[in-house]
Amino acid sequence: MSMEDQLIADFYDYEALLPDEERKLLLKARDFMRTEVKPLVNENWAKGEFPHELVGKFRELGLAGLPYEGYGEHLPATSHLLNGMMAMEMTRTDPSVATFFGVHNGLAMYSIYSGGDQEQRDRWLPSMAAMDKIGAFAMTEPLGGSDVAGGMRTTARREGDTWILNGAKKWIGNATFADLVVVWARDEEDDNVKGFVVEKGSPGFVPVKIENKFAFRIVENAEITLTDVRVPEANRLHGIDSFRDVAEILRATRGGVAWQALGVMIGAYELALDYAKERKQFGRPIARFQLVQDLLVKSLGNITASWGMLVQLARLQDAGIFKDEHSSLAKAFVTSRMREVVAWGREIFGGNGIVLDNDIMRFFTDAEAIYSFEGTREMNTLIVGKAITGQSAFV
C-alpha cells in the first residue's frame, strides 16, 4: 500500500479487518475522492452549487449498489463494515459530495430494496446502481422533523389505481435534479405512512433549491410542494404498510450517518495535523507545543473510540441482530465527538482556520448538519434511554 493510501488517523489499523477484495474497493473510492472530487470542492462550496459533472464520474467509478445483492457490479453483496468505511472515506474528503452519494445509494436505494416488491426492485435498482437514474428521499417536512412519525402532514388519497399526494417536504437532498424521489405520505384512509416513488417531471411536484445555507453548501437541498401529484399504484412501495416499516430503513441509515461523522473527524484531524507540522511560531513548528499535541491526541482518541464502536455496529448489522438503540447510541455519541474534533482542529489553525482555502472551516460548518439530521442527539438519547431503563421519556 502506498503512503497516499494509508490513513494516518487509522491508529489501530481498523481497515485491516476488511477482506482484500473489499479493501481494494475502499482504496478505489479513496483515489477517486482524492483525484476527482477534492479539486472541485472548495469552488463549488463557495458558490453553493453541486458539480453535476461528478455524476458521470461516479457512474464510471461503479460503486453504487454494492450493498444490494444482485444489483452491484463488483460483488454479490458487501459487508456493512465496507459500506460504513465507504461513507467514512467519502466524507473524509467532503461531507457534501458524500451526502449526495449516501442519499442516492443509501436512503433512496435502500427504501426501494427493502420496501419494494421484486418487480419494483428490478424496475428501478439496476438503473440506480448504474447511476443512470439518481434518487432522493423525502421524509422531513417544513413543520415536522423529530415528530414526523406522528405528525406527518403530507397526505395520500387513493382513487382506483392512482394515489393523489398533497403536502410539502423540506431539506430533501438531490431533489432538485433527482430522477426518482421516494416520498413518504400518510394514507387518508387508514392513517398509516406509505412510500411512493415520484418520477421527475410529475405534474404538481415542485422542488425549489434552499439557498443561504452555511453547511452542506454543495448539496442541493430542496423544499418540495406536492399539489395533487398523481402516482400509480405500481409506484407505491408495496412492502411498506406503516411507519414501523419506515423505521427499519431509518435504523440502517442512521448508522451510516455515524460513519459520516467519523469521516468528518478524520478529515479535520488530518488537516490539523498537517498544519501543525508546517506552521511555525516562535521559531519552531506548533506541533512541538504541548497544548497543540494535547488537542491532536484528544482528537485521535475520539476517532479511535468512535471507529471501534462503529466496527461492532457493523458486525451487529451483518449478524442481523442490531436494534434501534444500537444505531441511535452510535449516532448520538459519534456526532458529539465529531463536534469536539472539528472545534479543536479549527483551534489549531488559529485565524487561518476561517479561510476556505485551508479546508478546516468547511468541515467545521458541515459537521453541524450531520449533528442534526437522521435524528438529533436528544431524540437518539431518548431512544437509548428507553432501551436501558424500560421507561419512555418521550412527550
TrEMBL record:
PANTHER family: ACYL-COA DEHYDROGENASE, ACYL-COENZYME A OXIDASE. It comes from Amycolatopsis oliviviridis. Residues 136-229 form the Acyl-CoA oxidase/dehydrogenase middle domain. InterPro entries: ACX4-like, Acyl-CoA_DH_CS, Acyl-CoA_Oxase/DH_mid-dom, Acyl-CoA_Oxase/DH_mid-dom_sf, AcylCo_DH-like_C, AcylCo_DH/oxidase_C, AcylCoA_DH/ox_N, AcylCoA_DH/ox_N_sf. Residues 20-131 form the Acyl-CoA dehydrogenase/oxidase N-terminal domain. This is Glutaryl-CoA dehydrogenase. Coiled coil: none annotated. The keyword Flavoprotein applies. Its cofactor is FAD. Keywords: FAD, Flavoprotein, Oxidoreductase. Residues 246-388 form the Acyl-CoA dehydrogenase/oxidase C-terminal domain. It holds the Pfam family Acyl-CoA_dh_1.
